[in-house]
Amino acid sequence: MARYSNSHPKAAQNNRGIMSTPNIDSYRFGRIVIDGEPHSKDVIILSDRVIAGWWRKKGHTLLPEDLEEVLAAHPDLLVVGQGAYRRMNVTDQVRQSLDQAGIELISQSTKQACETYNKLREQRSVAAALHLTC
Which residue ranges in the chain fall short of pLDDT 70? Predict the structure, then answer.
């Protein structure tokens, strides 16, 4: 799988020699820009790639199988953007699955989740799963 969707640039080291993870440039209802690349479908952001067009098996219900790539990447933290109005439900099964894998979970509105992800992305191993609409 490609590091990023389409022709997204590869990660570079920052001035501290740490691999730079994808940056969220902006978010508004239904649209996110990550390192200059716009997306209009839900995304997962991992330290080494962006998975565009992410879709859940049960729409607005997040299940462990929807996060296979995140679980395989094993970040310290997963930030979930539940949508602008927090319509996406994070199930207890997801919480248990992440807990068993040793992955901390923060779930917020997508706007807040984007801000949280950007604040933490250079300090910790962090992933994001972002629902862009409701």
Answer: 1-19
Q: Domain-by-domain residue ranges, the chain?
A: 24-130
Amino acid sitting at position 18? I
Residue 129 structure tokens: 């799963």
Q: Residue 20: its pLDDT value, please?
A: 76
Class of domain 24-130: alpha beta
Q: How far apart are CA 87 and CA 98, in angstroms?
A: 20
Q: 31-34 and 37-39: which strand pairing?
A: antiparallel
**DSSP-assigned letter for residue 79:** E
Burial-class residue 45 by CB neighbours within 10 Å (0-12, 13-18, 19+). buried
